[in-house]
Structures are given as C-alpha cells and as structure tokens.
Give the backbone structure.
Amino acid sequence: MSTYKNILSKSIAVLYVTAMLFSCDNNTQKVRDLLADKNLPVGTAKDAYHVYKDSGRITSKLITPILLDFSNRKEHPYSEFPVGIKIINFEKNGIDSITITGNYAISYQKTSLSEIKGNVVVVNHTDKTRLETEQLFWDQKTKYFVSEKAFKLMTEKDTIYGIGFESKEDLSKHLAKKTTGKLETSEE
C-alpha cells in the first residue's frame, strides 16, 4: 500500500509541475501587456553603447546614459532616451562624419522617425558645418532633418540664423527659412 501511495504522490507532483510549465506559456506576453497598459518600458539599459554595422563595417554608434525600451507597444513601438543621446555616423573610411547630440530623444521603430530635443547639435566633421537648434526631427530612412524651431547654422564662411530648417543628414542641400545673418554668395 505504501508503494501505491508513493507512486501516486510522485505522479501528482509530476502532473502538477507539468501543468505549471504549460500554464507559463503566455506569462511573457501577459507581462509585456501589463507593462504596456501601465506605460512602463519592457527594458531599461544604463550607459548604453550600441554599434551598428553594415556588411561588417561600423556605420554608426549610439551612446546614451539611459535607454528605455517601449517595443511592447503594438501601435507605435519606440525607444526613449530621457537624459540625452549621442550618435556618431561614420564614412566608408571609418572617420567620424556626422555627430548628433541632444538632451532628449525618442525614436519610433516602425517609421524610423526620431525627435531630438534640447541643445541639439549636429556637426559635419568633413565639411566643418555645425547646426544648433532646440528640436530636430530625423527621418532615418531618407536621411533627412527637419526643424521648425530657431536654428543657427555655421559653415566655414557663413553663420545663418533663422526659424525653420531642412537638410540632408550631412547638412548639405539645406533649406533655411526666415533667415538672418551674413551670407557669402558667388554668381556663376
């Protein structure tokens, strides 16, 4: 009789553990949904240093003190950088070409659009061009910047002030709106 009780208790224990394992199947999704409902990130990284590569070549680096991962959002998953961000893009020869910094940033994964705010500085190291503004929208797919805020664009020859700015990511082919400042032009 005691052997029967022993087998029965072990069978119940195995059945219970098996039931527990199969019931945990959706817990990860439940936790992600709970975090989304409470507007909490699914992950947090401190002192993040992320390197992006294409065909084995480093194309850019992202450096931030805090990264909040909201990829659990169904409609608009995003990453938030609440205390600042620094992005360094590299030319094909590995030299820093563009550096972007700001006090806050948010980047949406589905659309590849980012907003950078607070003391935004974009530097083209190759052309020695520098853009300063308080807010900048960045379309990473088209590699294009847009701002409707006041800006200061410094080149080797000119300093342009204005409100509203558009340009390629490398600050070339820019459209400056409501401008003031000293500009050097040449007639061809």
